[in-house]
Amino acid sequence: MDVAHIQQQLREFAVARDWPQFHTPKNLVMAMSVEMAELLEHFQWLTPEQAVALKDDPARLDAVGQEMADVMMYMLRLADVLGVDLGDAIARKMVLNAIKYPAP
């Protein structure tokens, strides 16, 4: 996944529709939260086994994938708007997680 390329595509998509005025950090986080809730809805009330079995149902898996894409697009747009290098942020967080949760 080429994050910079996807962010450029998302930026151009937003500009073509005059959406940057609405893509404030607060609005993007709120929109991402809504999309997370829509993703969560696919798993609500499922047993762990049923949740794993979603991968074997192409129609349901496609619907879940679309919600995952919505969440990721908002996250990438937020990072772009705020100037956060997600690759760097993830690398730094992994170091902190390794310290906080050392392997046995």
Shape: globular
Report the major sheet: none
The secondary-structure class comes to mainly alpha
Question: CATH H-level name... which superfamily?
Answer: MazG-like
The tally of beta strands, per DSSP, is 0
Q: Spans with pLDDT under 50 lasting ≥5 residues?
A: none
For the CA atoms, what is the radius of gyration? 17 Å
Percent of residues in beta strands? under 5%
Looking at the overall shape, the CATH architecture is Orthogonal Bundle
| CATH fold type | Helix Hairpins
How far apart, in Å, are the first and last alpha carbons? 32 Å
State the domain count. 1
**SSE series:** HHHHH
Q: Give the count of helical stretches.
A: 5
Estimated helix fraction: over 70%
3D structure, described in words:
By secondary structure, the chain is mainly alpha-helical. The chain has a single domain, classed as Orthogonal Bundle (Helix Hairpins), CATH 1.10.287.1080. 74% of the residues lie in helices and 0% in strands. The radius of gyration is 17 Å and the shape is globular.
